[in-house]
Amino acid sequence: MKVLVDTNVLLRSVQKSHPACRVARQALVTLYRGEHSLFLTSQNVAEFWNVCARPIDVNGLGLSIEGTDRYTNQLEKFFAMPPDSSQVFQTWRRLVVDHAVMGAKVHDARLVAVMKTYDIPQIVTFNVSDFTRFSGIEAVHPDKVI
User: Fold this and answer.
1) Mean pLDDT across the stretch 36-63?
2) Domains of the chain
3) What is the pTM of this model?
């Protein structure tokens, strides 16, 4: 099955001191060993970079550019990344209007647009409730994967 991995799972998997690190890592390993096709979007990578390279005192991980780049290179090798397209944009526009999406939740709608455009039925995320408004996709907590 095709599975999109949310940024929060990626971040927790590299944040060794975070209590959810073990669950995030185990979920990724389980999905990989289960021969699922794992996907990211360019948005996931940008969000990952943002948090990794942001200073700790402003809720980041405080990694260097070099350290963030190493992690990002690993992500690009491990996950498939479908291209951005005008179809993704049009799907996103329809979703944000149809579901009255505002604020930071527009980013979740963009992930759903990629999922719908590229027929990716499932997203693994720590924020399952962020995706309940969207039909045709399934949001799964990493606990349910392992």
Assistant:
1) 97
2) 2-82+119-145 (3.40.50.1010)
3) 0.95
